[in-house]
Amino acid sequence: MVFLEAEMSSNVLLSPEHLTPQGLLLRKSIITRLLEDIANKKASKEYGYFIAITSLNSIGEGRVRALTGDVLFPVNFMCLTQKPTKGELLTGTVEKILKHGLFLKSGPIENIFISEKLTGEYKYVPGENPVFLSEKQGKLEKGVSVRFKVVGFRWMEAERHFQLLGSLAGDFLGPI
Questions:
Q1: Among candidate residues 110, 116, 111, 112, the one with its CA nearest the CA of residue 89
Q2: CA–CA separation, 26 vs 19, rounded Å?
Q3: d(CA 122, CA 124)
Q4: What is the DSSP string of 45-66?
Q5: Which of 18, 41, 88, 147 could lock 29 by a disulfide, CB 3.0 to 4.6 Å apart?
Q6: Are the C-beta atoms of 125 and 132 separated by less than 8 Å?
């Protein structure tokens, strides 16, 4: 996956109980709240998945909200992100096998589907523990690590994640 370091800005809202006269504790409260906000957002269409905040560039002047007493601080920071791209080779773990294909998980991406039509030489074998078999490359079963190619992806705004379509058709793709 492509890693990017992006400059981002956000507004951090602190309640009055987090405000102290000591500057270091205030800075700590802002950073803690920023980390919580980024973890809750999980990802964005523009930047991909948020991995880590690498630096806090600036904290603006706080503005007090009249009704609640909360203080809103504008902050600028650098964030390490991870975004899938079409044609990229990734590794994932088989999570589920169905007649029509298999589902993988790779890092923060939990919705990767490889259609039976894109498995190359693999054929579906039903049973209590279904698998995809290939005479040359072995078998794909739950828990196996697989190298695959990203054929396409789509951003799902409501769930705040990407759905990927992968392929095993090609050289050096399949079980690792």
A1: 112
A2: 6
A3: 7
A4: TTTEEEEEEEEEEEE---EE-T
A5: 18
A6: yes
Mean pLDDT of 110-125: 94
CA distances from 99 to 24, 96, 135 (A): 57, 10, 19
pLDDT in tens, 84-96: 999 999 999 999 9
**What is the model's pTM?**
0.82
Question: Are residues 144 and 162 in contact, defined by beta-carbon separation less than 8 angstroms?
Answer: no
- Helix/strand/coil for 36: helix
CA separation for the pair 122, 94 (Å, rounded): 14
CB 104 within 8 A of CB 58: no
Centre a 10 Å sphere on the Cβ of residue 152 and count the other Cβ atoms it contains: 12
